[in-house]
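hi! just following up on the protien thing from before. the input was this:
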Amino acid sequence: MKKIFYQDTDFEQQLENLYHRPSYPPEIEEPVKNILQGVHERGNAALSEYAKKFDNAELTPEQFLVDEEEIKKASRKVDADCRSAVKAALKNVMYFAEQRIPQPWSCSPRPGVIVGERFEPMERIGVYVPGGTAPLVSTVIHTAGIAKAAGVKEIIAVTPPGPDGEVHPAVLYAMRQAGVTEVYRLGGVYGIAALAYGTETIKKVEKIVGPGNAYVTAAKKLVYGEVAIDMVAGPSEIMIIADEKCTPEFIAADILSQAEHGSGLEQAVLLSTDKDLMDKVEAEVYAQKKLLNRQETVDKVISKGVFLIHVEDMDAAADIAGKYAPEHLEIQCAKAGNVAKKVKAAGAVFIGQWTPEPIGDFCAGPSHVLPTAGSARFFSGLTVEGFFRRMSIVNYHKSALKKEVDTAVKFAEMEGLDAHGRSASIRFNSEN
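and the predicted 3d structure came back as:
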């Protein structure tokens, strides 16, 4: 855990080091490329090989697909409370998504001209559901549930199998509730490759969404163009803005909620105007850490990825937050809503001490698939619009084209594209 004070002579440089953090270590791209190429060239045979190598699962191509009977059997293992939690979260997430479904529109900006937009849901999308260090049941809801709200017909899920080839029952139950139409027990880079390229038995998708570890992130980046992706997102991170009136126990718990994610590359940053609060939070982190299961992972993050930063005032905190552009930003200080308005970039903003980040991870409504590593400056979190194709609509009457044909011809001349100009002008040769 590192403390940084705004009186430090190298304060700005230390902040710059925080701002520039990679989504994943660049050296992993080469092995990721090799796996992608293997699936692209060898299809199912490569998937079986990689399932054995990376997930210690013996799978034949006939076993990739989780059949309906297995899903039903697994669903029966999920207790009533878990079922209720899944349904409640799905209801909230789909409700939020439904408020944002894009609607067609048109207008007539000039006589004889109609322009507008039309939206159609994608037909086949892929969702990646992490399952290596924890079965992320919530990710099913925050990806497939939104695609279902958009009206996507084919929702394809891939998730890592256990050594016995099984998928966690709660994950399968959530998939069924969220409208997943095909489930494949394929994980990591080779699962992404199956979605992007397809194989002898798996049809490729149009877009891949969902979080994952550094290797999954690199794979998504490398298949971009072959398919669409939601974003390039790295290890989870949280930033918290707090003043002297905030509760250190709450802040420490929120820091640890991200530190336990699994890669050891996560970050948690506290911005505070109060040095005493920083000391109390530090003590609380170490005290609460003893109560957690994932000690080794948490220790890595505490030693390398937790930063307690003393700032001059809340304006400075908002400025730093916008430049850091965190995946999750909690604002627990006085007049938190006013401070939130000053922040220029973040994946999701959680306002007030009664809005802990995990409520967004699970059931608040907006998707928990969010940009990390500062990419919130140019990426936004997953929304229902991301599952639609947008088509521009242009409709000209003859009289309207006649008024604007000279403009089109002149642009064609400037760009040296005479066929373009002729395409417009030929319609008025001898008044066709």
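The first strand starts at residue 2 and ends at 5.
The chain is about 45% helix and 15% strand.
cheers
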